[in-house]
């Protein structure tokens, strides 16, 4: 089981900012803009992964349908994707 802790975050950011890779340096600089929120996100037991997955699905559908159909069809497609994802969800009861 992974330990969710932000204790090593400051040291990692310092090391990443010293790295020669521009992408890693830029990422570390971005973390510094809101380091308190990042540390809280690392140390809390809550996760927004499920919500982020749904948001990604909705954005994908919206981009696919841009200018092609109205709100009723978009709504039907969003509900269909949500129902399909629900069938593939692993719960504690099914995993045991």
Summarize, please.
By secondary structure, the chain is mainly alpha-helical. It has six helices and no strands. The radius of gyration is 19 Å and the shape is elongated.
Could you walk me through the main structural features you see in this protein, from its secondary elements to its overall organization?
- The structure is a single chain.
- This protein has 96 residues and is mainly alpha-helical.
- It has six helices and no strands.
- The longest helix has 17 residues, at 71-87.
- The protein starts with 8 loop residues before the first helix and ends with a helix.
- The model has no long low-confidence stretch (mean pLDDT 82).
Topology:
Layout: H1 9-18, H2 22-32, H3 35-43, H4 49-64, H5 71-87, H6 92-95
* Major sheet details: none
Please state the structural category.
mainly alpha
The fraction of residues assigned to DSSP E strands is under 5%
List segments where confidence is low: pLDDT < 50 over at least 5 consecutive residues: none
Order of helices and strands: HHHHHH
Features:
96 residues; elongated; 6 helices
